[in-house]
Amino acid sequence: MREIGAAEVSAAVARMCRSANTKLPDDVRRKLEESLARETSEAGREIFRQLLENADLAFKTKLPLCQDCGLAVFYVEMGEDVRVAGGLNKAIIEGMVAGYRDGFLRKSSCDPMTRRNTGDNTPAIIHVDLTPGDKLKISYMAKGGGSENMSRVTMLAPSQGWKGIKEFVVRRVAEAGPNPCPPVILGVGIGGTFEYAPRIAKKALLRKLDDTHPDPKIAAMEAELLAGVNALGIGPMGLGGDITCLAVKIAMAPCHIASLPLAVNVQCHSARHEEVEF
Question: pLDDT, tens digit, for every residue of 256-276?
Answer without folding.
Answer: 999 999 999 999 999 999 999
